[in-house]
């Protein structure tokens, strides 16, 4: 038996990994004649080999059918967005009618707040985490101002209360209770982008509902990373991107979830567009807006077919693997990485992601001991030797072993490279 943290043990785990063949379905960047050790699936997922064929199929249809491509064949463009809805619903634990691939995350966030942030003089407040990803903070402040309120009074940010800058459920509960009578919307991440902390979506939804507030989630770092059950959890909405763990390319089409209880509520305000009009009468070109039933009713324009094509290729791989198996491997990979860092690099790196595996996904956020200058030096060294994580100011390197394509031996590449730098 090899030692659990030995390279030999890692190689044995790779050899017996039931998901090992999936790595071959991705194009791995090269470095000095070999494969780069890539840990940035939390920022931009690798390209599935099937993505190019999916895009070329659309290009071929455009070349040979032109406008008739909208209405011809099993992958006709008129309903192309539905080619991903079933598999996407499986990934996020929703009904197919509750999800739609459209726009980008920031656009979708604004569209959802049009419907679900309805402030009054008595209830004008949005509650979110302090240090949220800038797009969320910008969108929330803009929406508050748009409605004629002051963010200084109507934006509540829950401060970290745990040692490494993470936020306890108790702190969230206290904040929601404290502001409950004035809360219009709770907007919360599934996984906090900088710390990698994962949150209990069901508990937060229950807390918001108890105060009469709407609840929405930014799942940019959750979709494809953690098993989700959005239909059962039943927030009002959720938004996410597809270019991270869903491997759909830079600037990929994003996604949105609207719970089915809202699907036939025509009193909900929304920014309407032609593609959200019911399909049966869309081409009658009538002036009255009749929304499609379901999340599709929040669409604005016809979807970018070339942008949706890579998502189809990626979702095929998720269906092949299954989220349960991916989560099992993710727990093992990130657990081993954590143990290796604690064992071999405690003088170099300090984990700020929660130690409890239930409170994190595959990302470990590692603070470089010694400050920003030392941190940047380590980051540049890793990049120079072909080990790629990503940098977050002022002193954090994020490393995300992604179970679709990362291996156990990759963890040793990272730890060995850090150790060699520290010894130099």
Which descriptors would you attach to this protein?
424 residues; alpha/beta; Aspartate Aminotransferase, domain 2; 2 domains; seven-stranded mixed β-sheet; four-stranded antiparallel β-sheet
Summarize the structure.
With about 425 residues, the chain is α/β, with parallel strands linked by helices.
Kindly describe this structure.
The chain is α/β, with parallel strands linked by helices. It has 2 domains: 7-17 and 322-423, Aspartate Aminotransferase, domain 1 (Alpha-Beta Complex); 55-318, 3-Layer(aba) Sandwich (Aspartate Aminotransferase, domain 2), CATH 3.40.640. It has 14 helices and 17 strands. The protein has helices spanning 7-15, 49-65, 82-92, 105-116, 134-146, 151-154, 169-179, 201-210, 230-233, 279-282, 305-321, 323-344, 372-384, 408-423; strands at residues 26-27, 30-31, 34-35, 37-38, 47-48, 99-101, 125-129, 155-158, 183-189, 214-218, 237-240, 255-258, 349-351, 364-368, 387-388, 390-392, 396-399. The strands form 5 sheets. The chain has a 7-stranded mixed beta sheet with strand order 6-12-11-10-9-7-8, with helices on both faces. The chain is globular and about 70 Å long. The relative contact order is 0.17. The mean pLDDT is 97. Keywords: Hydrolase, Pyridine nucleotide biosynthesis, Pyridoxal phosphate. Its EC number is 3.7.1.3. Belongs to the kynureninase family. This is Kynureninase. GO terms for molecular function: kynureninase activity; pyridoxal phosphate binding.
């Amino acid at each position: 038996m090899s030692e659990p943290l030995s390279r030999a043990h890692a190689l044995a785990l790779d050899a017996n990994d039931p998901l090992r063949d999936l790595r071959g379905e991705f194009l791995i960047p090269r470095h000095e004649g070999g494969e780069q050790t890539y840990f940035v699936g939390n920022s931009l997922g690798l390209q599935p080999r099937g993505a190019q064929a999916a895009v070329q199929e659309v290009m071929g249809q455009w070349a040979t059918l032109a406008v008739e491509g909208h209405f011809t064949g099993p992958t006709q463009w008129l309903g192309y967005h539905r080619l991903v809805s079933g598999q996407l619903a499986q990934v996020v634990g929703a009904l197919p009618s509750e999800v739609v691939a459209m726009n980008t995350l920031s656009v979708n966030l604004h569209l959802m707040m049009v419907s679900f942030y309805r402030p009054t003089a008595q209830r004008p407040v949005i509650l979110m985490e302090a240090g949220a990803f800038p797009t969320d903070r910008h969108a929330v402040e803009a929406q508050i101002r748009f409605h004629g309120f002051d963010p200084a009074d109507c934006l509540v940010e829950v401060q970290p209360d745990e040692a490494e800058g993470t936020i306890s459920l108790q702190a969230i509960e206290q904040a929601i209770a404290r502001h409950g009578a004035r809360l219009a919307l709770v907007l919360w991440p599934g996984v906090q982008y900088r710390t990698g902390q994962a949150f209990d979506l069901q508990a937060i939804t229950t807390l918001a509902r108890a105060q009469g507030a709407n609840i929405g989630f930014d799942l940019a770092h959750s979709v494809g990373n953690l098993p989700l059950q959005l239909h059962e959890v039943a927030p009002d909405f959720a938004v996410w991107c597809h270019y991270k763990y869903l491997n759909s390319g830079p600037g990929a089409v994003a996604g949105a979830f609207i719970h089915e209880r809202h699907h036939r509520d025509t009193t909900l305000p929304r920014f309407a567009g032609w593609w959200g009009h019911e399909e049966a009468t869309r081409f009658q070109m009538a002036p009255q807006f009749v929304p499609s039933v379901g999340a599709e009713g929040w669409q604005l324009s016809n979807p970018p077919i070339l942008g949706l094509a890579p998502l189809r290729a990626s979702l095929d791989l998720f269906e092949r693997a299954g989220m349960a198996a991916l989560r099992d491997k993710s727990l093992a990979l990130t657990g081993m990485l954590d143990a290796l860092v604690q064992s071999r690099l405690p003088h170099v790196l300090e984990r700020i992601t929660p130690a409890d595996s239930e409170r994190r996904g595959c990302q470990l956020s590692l603070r470089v001991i010694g400050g920003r200058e030392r941190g940047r030096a380590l980051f540049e060294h890793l990049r120079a030797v072909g080990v790629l994580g990503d940098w977050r100011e002022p002193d954090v390197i994020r490393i995300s072993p992604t179970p679709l394509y990362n291996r156990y031996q990759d963890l040793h590449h990272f730890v060995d490279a850090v150790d060699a730098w520290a010894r130099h």
